[in-house]
Write a structure and sequence with these properties.
Blueprint (H helix, E strand, L loop, with lengths): L2 H9 L21 H11 L2 H7 L4 E5 L8 E2 L5 E2 L25 H9 L4 E7 L1 H9 L1 H10 L1 H24 L4 E5 L12 H21 L4 E4 L8 H7 L3 E3 L9 H8 L4 E6 L10 H15 L5 E5 L9 H14 L3
Parallel strand pairs: 1-4, 4-5, 5-6, 6-7, 7-8, 8-9
Antiparallel strand pairs: 2-3
Helix pairs in contact: 5-6, 5-7, 6-7, 7-8, 11-12
Length: 328
């Protein structure tokens, strides 16, 4: 099997030749330049590193809707030109989702990585709103001005749906909706707000992906137990990361949702890769393989972008182990 076949078989809850491997390795804003340089020195390029460890699934992050968006350090949301107040946002503040220039990056990424399956990462309505207003103002307006937020979220859902369609046209194998709703101990906002404001508008994106015959993936950090039924109802096929440090349990998710969801994760960057012993890391990966491999529906992946504080040797150990233990 090639990588694309392996990933798609797992998503279809079939047992491929081995468990597919994904990795969130490098994004400049997440401060991993040092790690990237170390990999390139040892392997020659990121692509050769991917080949050495059998990486099957890679991620490409698509642009935000706000045309003056400026990324902050460490992946924080910093809006360009000071941001825009909710009541002041107009169509003029949006990028044109049909602008070919927005897709040059993913076209080049796909061309550079012909051996891997590519997930286009588009923005769910909450994180898309962050690009205009920042995190705090968005969350406050979900409480203070729900009608205006609902109107904006509908526009953002339509915008990201169009981005998803265009990414698929350019060759993306699946589309991932970035939809963070969880924090370390629970939801960022109430489940009621999620159902009324977020669900119907992120579903616009999911429906557009489904209509073009591609799997719907979702990235949703934090503790999201309270909305897991809704994520499944939205039509999500692949869920990342099921953050273990926030209390998510991959094995419990497999038991309850394994016939409907593919788990995309298992490598915790906050403790598993960073703090455990080598023996503990190997044992964790083996346990996940034992519990999550049967009937497909499992992709090994890091829970987020790997920070440069994690030694390369630990990353190598994790993927050597996953590659060895992943065969059916």
């Amino acid at each position: 099997m090639n990588s694309r076949q392996r990933v798609l078989a797992a998503i279809q809850h079939q047992e491929p030749d081995r468990v597919p491997l994904g990795i969130w390795l490098y994004q400049k804003i997440f401060g991993s330049e040092k790690l990237k340089a170390e990999i390139e020195f040892k392997y020659g390029s990121l692509e050769k590193f991917y080949a050495a460890f059998g990486i099957d699934l890679l991620l490409y992050v698509m642009p935000f809707p706000y045309k003056n968006y400026v990324p902050g350090l460490g992946g924080t949301f910093q809006t360009g030109l000071g941001g825009v107040a909710l009541e002041a946002i107009t169509a003029d503040h949006f990028r044109d989702p049909d602008d070919d220039a927005l897709y040059t990056g993913i076209e080049q990424f796909i061309a550079t990585h012909p051996a891997q399956a590519i997930a286009a990462h588009v923005w769910g309505v909450v994180e898309a709103a962050y690009s205009f207003m920042g995190v705090e103002a968005t969350l406050m307006n979900m409480v203070a001005q729900p009608e205006l937020i609902a109107r904006l979220f509908f526009q953002l859902g339509q915008w990201s749906a169009r981005m998803a369609e265009n990414a698929i046209t350019r060759g993306a194998d699946l589309v991932q909706i970035s939809a963070d709703a969880g924090a370390s101990n629970g939801m960022l906002f109430s489940p009621k707000q999620w159902w009324s404001l977020v669900f119907p508008n992120d579903k616009l994106i999911a429906d557009a992906i489904k209509a073009r015959g591609k799997p719907v993936a979702m990235h949703n950090d934090g503790n999201i137990w309270q909305i897991m039924d809704g994520i499944v109802a939205m039509g999500v096929d692949v869920l990342h990361p099921l953050q273990t440090s926030a209390g998510m349990d991959l094995i419990a998710v497999k038991q309850k949702y394994g016939d409907r969801l593919t788990i995309n994760g298992g490598l915790d960057i906050t403790r598993g890769l960073a703090e455990t012993t080598d023996a503990e890391l190997i044992a964790t990966i083996r346990e996940y393989m034992r519990a999550l491999k049967p009937r497909g529906g499992f992709i090994v992946n890091t829970e987020h972008f790997i920070p440069e504080t994690i030694p390369l040797a630990r990353i190598e150990l994790a993927y050597q182990t996953a590659l060895r233990e992943g065969w059916y």
